[in-house]
Specification:
The structure holds 3 protein chains of 3 kinds. Chain B is built from 12 helices and no strands. Chain B is mostly helical. The radius of gyration of chain C is 23 Å and the shape is globular. Classes of the chains: A alpha+beta, B mainly alpha, C mainly alpha. At the A-B interface, helix 5, strand 9, helix 6 and helix 12 of A face helix 2, helix 4, helix 6 and helix 11 of B.
Amino acid sequence: MKMKTALLGAACAFAFAPAAMAERGTDGNVKILYSQAVSIMNAYLSSGTKDVEVGSLVLEPLAGFDENGTIYPRLVTEIPTLENGGISEDQTSVTWKIKEGLKWSDGTDFTADDVVFTGAYCMDPAGGCAQLGKFEGVKSVEAIDPLTVKVTFTGPKPNPLVAFVGAESPILQKAQFAACMGAAAPTCTEANFKPHGTGPFMVTDFKVNDSVELAANPNYRDPAKPAFATVSVKGGGDAASAARAVMETGEFDYAWNTQINPELQAQMAAGGKGTFVSGFGTLVERIEMNMTDPSPDLPEGERATAKHPHPILSDVNVRKALSMAIDRNVLVEVGYGVAGRPTCNLVPAPAIYASPNTDCIMQDMDGAKKLLDEAGWTVGADGIREKDGKKFKLLYQTSVNPVRQDFQALIKGWWNELGVDVELKSIDGGVYFGGDAGSPDTFQKFYADVEMYANNFPGTDPEPYVAQYTCDKAPKPESQWQGENINRYCDPAYDALLAELIQTKGTEERAAKVIRLNEMLTKDSYTIVPLVDRGRLSAHSNTLGGVVLNVWDSEMGNVENWYRIK
Amino acid sequence: MLTFTLRRLMFAIPTLLFISLLIFLLVDLAPGSPMSQIPLTVPPEVRLKIMEAMGVNEPVMVRYLLWLKQFFVVEPLVLWDHWFSTEYSAGMQRIVSWQSRSPVMDIVVQRLPQTMTVIGTSYVLGVLIALPIGIYSAYRQYSWFDQLGTFIAMIGFSVPTFFTGLVLILVFAVNLHWFPSIYDTSLRVTDWASFMQQVKQMAMPVMVLALYNAAQISRYMRSSMLENLGQDYVRTARAKGLTERVVVLKHVVRNSMIPVVTVIALGIPSIFGGAIITEQVFRVNGLGALLIGAIQGSDLPTVQTLTFIFAVLIVLFNLIADILYGLLDPRIRYD
Amino acid sequence: MTNAPAALAKPRSQWADVWVQFKSHKGALVGLFVFVSLVLFVFIGPMVWTKDPTFINPDAVTMIKTRNKPPSIEFPLGTDQLGRDMLARMMKGGQTSIAVGLTAMVISITLGTFVGVMAGYFKRLDNALMRLTDLFLALPLLPLLLVMAMLFRAPLSKAFGPEGGTFLLIVVAIGLTSWMQAARVVRGEVLALKEREFVLAARSIGTPSRRMILRHVLPNVMSPIMVAATLGIANAIITESALSFLGLGFPPDFPTWGRLLFDGAEYIQQYPERVIWPGVAISLTVLSVNYIGDGLRDALDPRIRGR
């Protein structure tokens, strides 16, 4: 269906790349800077974006996503669909046909056995595979013949193209990793640092959390690629200095994730040494409203649980008023510049899943005040609203990050204008996102009234993402505070609609349901108040050609097409 | 002195064991978790499995004893095997980092060179600058040289290193293009050109740290010198007709060294500990960067191993300082 | 720590002497003047300049217009990236930074001096105290601070209010983790001092330990203590801002000099004045305290005072 256009698009991209005609390894060295250093090349043992992306220079999945989020074949001849019979009628199995003549970087043949092995490697219960989610519902992976692999599921899967798709689940070489199954996985240091791959490069030197040196893979399937003979990946430091190294000193060719303030972006871009590229995926910075009472006066074990509804925020009109007071355009202008845009949606992309709702974009302070008046919250003598003797006071927490602190200050200003007393709190990211059940400061525990963070979903299927907001997924003491329904939203209608979505097959019908679910969380209930659709902002030197910023898969996904502009 | 040294070394063993236990419990109790490094997109069930595979869920004492065994038995055996090509350690589990799944000691060995060259050089340079400045400032108290020295020293430690680093990068890398702003750890010094490159990339981090260290040490040197210059023995020495040079450099400096030796001895283990901020600003990626990264990711085996090595060095250098006191001032006795 | 000699006979005339000597020290007088001005600026200043340091104009258009302003009559030190008045922020920030710097320094110096003198003077305590020092030197700072915050923040804010509790937590955290250098230095000095003739003489006439320490030992280790104190203030002001980055410090919209310096560093190329103000303020504080310390040491030294 859409696949053909994607293929055509990809073909066009190749045709327009002038230096792609050059021979392999003629363009010397390319230097890439990651502000987080790479700790391992094996995506199955670390799900950190930096590890997955740098790993993708070497290891490849069967199929990947292009910059539009369309799936395209990498190691297979075509994408399995219902039409071509690759996906079975009942959607319980997928058959992949591997390209002929593929070789690993050590010169041996790439076969279906390697794919089968990779599946077994990740699904080994003792291995602690970081990408196990990709293999959810997989019953078996078997080789039909050396070039055909069949993945069978335990039941029908509306979206079966998950395992072995995208940089998070690449294929490992059986010969190299055979001794690294299960509990032995972490002991294979050499294999984890220098895996044999089918990608355009191979590792020559690996320094943990510091730098990776790579050279062109002599057995890469396209004899004319890659144009660069070697790649140096350096890690560490911060986003601003990474941007500086590309945009101002010109020491590096590419810097990953250079999120800096918009004014500095403008100044650096004016320097003429490099270019910022941005792309939008599904990452949304949002405020989550706590539906339960986080008061420290409640006994531990009942605090912030469904037993006690939130005394202020349980009223939907109050939540709506808080959202209306926020000017999202200002937030974007102050914090993100070109790398952000205001949004009212939890699922901002892909386009078919995005709700057209834009009600929240315009700030409406007067409307918000009116709404609060109607809800019974009247302005008291000290300018703070109160109802039945209770003061309107909120604790607003987030992780330590300069942009988030600016957002906190701005939103506090607007809420103060509403007559809401706001206390701010910022928490070290390691603690906030750490999920340690013993710490009071994790975002799951949510010992605050509102909190802010960003989240997204991998790939292009939002179903698992919207499935996070069911009643049973609320973090609670019994589940060691694990759970993804951070704000403890609980609506039986939502759970019912979600159950329908899981059974739905057609793309259009699925999209309609996702949009509805998204709206139930956002514009109907204001449980989640989306603020900014955050893009990826990276920088590349003006002498580096072929860069296409891809937010749906590894940013390094098309590195074989990079070349030096002479 | 020998018995004192031996006794102290004996006593160091239980001390270090106790310190290692305390560090272990502290890091374990700290509210971070290795899960903070895993993206939010990974479902909770998978997270729990990852943690289980790391061995995080074992009771803390079990993990501590395992670490003790790995540190004191397995790692020395590995080293032995490495030196003598034997196979004693075959099949034994080494201390493995949770973040990178590689043996912690290998990473330490990989990172020692850049830490030693950059941080070590800056420390030596800092001491070499600080001593003469401190001595001369005290000898000519309130001269313009002393005032200038005081002023620079105050700036030196009241402005944090992240800031001096940033200013240096803007001046020397962005505007003048003299030095690279990012340290290349893969650079091998083979000839004059690569040596110059190494000097260039070391220039800025060394400047930042040398300024900071020199500022501190010169203040201690100066104040201690001032204290001693007013003592009676100085008058006596001058009255004896000794030259100023001998009086100041031989008598006063020697007697003023005790606080300076203390501060320098305290500083040497921190060379090994690396300079967290400076390493991060210039991406030297030495031991300091390793430690901070491990702490942020709650990588307990790495944090534990690094801090323990650090503790050993602290105990060792404080002992050396104590021995030096005795040499500088023979009246000090410990037995 | 400086009142040790004062506890003895004829306090009035001795302090008068000290003051006379202190006055003759030009650097110390200038330092005192600068320090008092800084204190007046941050504590009295907000009564004159009444702008709210955390006020952000809720009207988006006005807010955008007043962002990143250079110094002007309306905003003498300019505004920050959210249009907050820098002068008001410098004053408010100074209150916290000076208070935290001084208190944490006093805690750390008192603790360090106490441990150092005890270890140096009493041989029995030496080993135990110095191993304790080794332990504190070896403990990794970051996890230690995180644990302290986790265990004590909630009870402290309950007992002393959110701001008082945070203040207490911060100064204690800084004090507890920075006394070791002072302790080692003081101990080294005391070890040498103990063997000097005047100490032996005092001991031979049966002076009790308490008096020995207060009268003979402490006054003679004042100079390294003064240096440690100056270094300690700078260290505390910077550490405070680092703590707030761990979520251990004051709420994120609460300005302090260290935090203003950190925040300003991001904008150093476009608006260098944003880092110059807090940088100068911190340096001036440290510099003035250093000169006051210099003068005080000279004034307390009877040998110099006599001249």
